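Page 47, continued from p. 46.
Same chain as before, 262 aa.
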Amino acid sequence: MALWTKGMVVDFWFVVALGVVTYVLITRARAGMKIPEIRKIAGLEALEESIGRATEMGRPVHATPGLGGISDPETFAFFNTLGYIAQLCAKYDCRLINTNRNYLVHSVNEEIIKQAYLEAGRPDAYNGDDVRYLSGFQFGYTAAILGIFAREKPAASIMIGYFYAESLILAEAGAQIGAIQIAGTTSTAQLPFFVAACDYTLIGEEIYAASAYISKNPVLLGTVVGEDWFKILVFLTIVVGTVVTNIIADPKKNPLTNFIMK
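Result:
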């Protein structure tokens, strides 16, 4: 009986390598030892500035996770950022409007914001009416946000999550009311619209690194750095494999091919 399925040797050792590297980095981070730093992400650096500007103008902050459901990774990335946004709004006494398309996401966001205000020492400032479920339909949700923009005129709009056809509509509407806009999504089809219409854009996996970047939690930092190192390893493996395969034309004589197919 074989220890693993044929052709899975490389996968096995890659997973082992990722686990070991991540464990070592997390251990070093917890012990206060130096690990590589996450590079500065302009959109996350601008969060406090945008909320401060909204406070000075006496206008609210708008935050939405887009179309994602409760099980989508983009939505979880928004949860982590929302807690930080809510704490800043509580600290500066700035009104926060959270809009949602999914009723389960709405319930979670309600608790996140309530807890953030409690941790900031201002539970009385929390307003449940500003955490809003709009519509389960894509363009019903979009139209409702446009109405909020027209009536409330938020000075900052933060859109992090999964967005689709509504991305440019929301970004353009935010630009028309003069809001500082910070957007982020993993949808490659919508990123160009956010880049064109928003002040700051988190591209792809930057939204997943946001929680580690904001919290400086050693476990999260070690995990992000470990994953980045693993990506570099995979890239180098692809490069070496491509070179070796082009030099050794016969697959039977190629050591990498033989190893992968074990």
